[in-house]
């Protein structure tokens, strides 16, 4: 069963606008990660936020984590055409090996 | 890019034939994983390895076996391919267990006809 569920499934915005994607999960986690996948390519790690953190920044990316609501959001500011990709959240369990569980992803399209 | 090579990158095979996908890493990472990616399902873990000869099942392991005889190589075998195993297969590696980044290969596209 999928742990993380992204919302929306698809998002289309104009270049320069901000893009926000959400992820909800069901069980307690050790960490939550966001990955990007360009069409026909493998996934690339963007950012990791641990369960005791509430917000994290990396360049134009801002991730928040609300463990009480079991949800996370990824904000991409000042979007660029190169940001067009699918974005996946992945949750790391508290116990066990690094068995990340991925959501189905959000397909982001940046229109020039 | 992480040193991960998947082979073959594309393969078409017939139902009932055995298929082996290979993942080779040059990073000396301890953990290796096989995921499959399907529309509507995201990525699902098939098997993973936490060391040479140490493997365990993931979420969708039925119909798949794995082997890791060397740190750098992780093989995924479909003993008798079925059409439901048509998918994109991704190998991934990570150095540690506790909340570390996973690095993905470029994928292997498998079609079972």
Write structural notes for this entry.
The complex is a heterodimer of chains A (112) and B (113). Chain A has 112 residues and is an all-beta fold. Chain A has no helices and eleven strands. Chain A has strands spanning 5-7, 10-14, 19-24, 29-37, 43-50, 55-58, 61-66, 71-76, 85-93, 101-102, 106-111. In chain A, strands 2, 4, 5, 9, 10 and 11 form a six-stranded mixed sheet that branches. The radius of gyration of chain A is 13 Å and the shape is globular. The model of chain A has no long low-confidence stretch (mean pLDDT 91). Chain B is mainly beta and 113 residues long. Chain B has no helices and eleven strands. Chain B has strands at residues 4-7, 10-13, 19-25, 31-38, 42-51, 54-57, 64-70, 73-78, 87-94, 103-104, 108-112. In chain B, the strands form two sheets. In chain B, strands 2, 4, 5, 6, 9, 10 and 11 form a seven-stranded mixed sheet that branches. In chain B, strands 1-3-8-7 form a four-stranded antiparallel sheet, with no helix packed on it. In chain B, strand 9 (87-94) and strand 10 (103-104) form a beta hairpin. The model of chain B has no long low-confidence stretch (mean pLDDT 93). The A-B interface holds A 1-2, 30-31, 33, 35, 40-45, 48, 50, 88, 90, 92, 97-105 and B 4, 31, 33, 35, 40-45, 48, 50, 56, 58-59, 90, 92, 94, 96-107.
